[in-house]
Amino acid sequence: MRDINLKATEYFEAVARLGTVTRAAAELGVSPSAVSQQIRTLEGQFGVKLFRREKRRLVLTLDGDRLFQTTTQAFGALRNATAAIGRQRHLRSLTLRVSPSFGVRFLGPRIATFAADNPDWNIRIDATPEISAFEAEPFDFDLRYGHGDWPGLSVEPIMNDLVMPVCSPEYLAHLQSLADTPAEQLAQARLIDSVKSQCRWDVWLAATRIELSDLTYPFRFDRSSMVIEMAKRGGGVALDNAALYVDDLKRGDLVPLSVDFPALETPTYWLVCPPRHLSRRIVKRFAEWLGHEAATHDSEVRAVLATLGCTIRPATRAE
To answer: Which of 22, 40, 112, 208 is 20 to 30 A from 4 in CA distance terms?
Structure first.
């Protein structure tokens, strides 16, 4: 069979949907005679009549109705897609990647506020531990966890780690029943290892000059959110960033193992992108909002730690 004449099919669909040649011609922006000619062309191609005239009305034949059911769905889908593309052109588009636990515990609860304040923005967020290949992928920027050393990219600080040992109140009571001092209690504890943390147990112990005879990890996770949940459920003592579990501290679901143990502070969260991306209006707008949210959250975390009696000490790269 020869290829179907798409123009003739479009004209046929309009006539069948609107009921008259005149209405179809007005919608298509052509003359009624042009519409009639295309209908005759299509009927000649198929070798059947598609309409029959009853008084002053055009009525679909059985063959015409069969063709109309297919064409109206196809052209309807095309019209919807065209309208969606047209709307999309008027939206500001922001596409970013974020470290998973930071995305779940910090960005996730806040992004709805940003979206409500910017309803004409189309926002896409991918939560993945892998940094974007900006030359090959359409991402505006990443929110990354790490030391901040990504050569060739602009790296702006967002938030610091405030790392200290925490556990559930029930597990702390259990440890206190086994030993008198915090260091002895830590030696009795099941340690939960956050394997991708910049300040793991060996680093924190060296910085605080605490020695454990047997540094073993019954539980090891590559997501802070899993570490925090395990600690909340009494699985052991977690060492992770207080900025990610400050709400758990406020509710009392987590407590410091001891206020004698400091929270070590390290810059670890960054906005990362090629330098040219910083000139994009959407990147500037989001970065300003994110900076305000991060500063507000950081102040809240420090206030909660102060209320609990915890101290904060800067960590060095050597630690």
So the answer is: 22
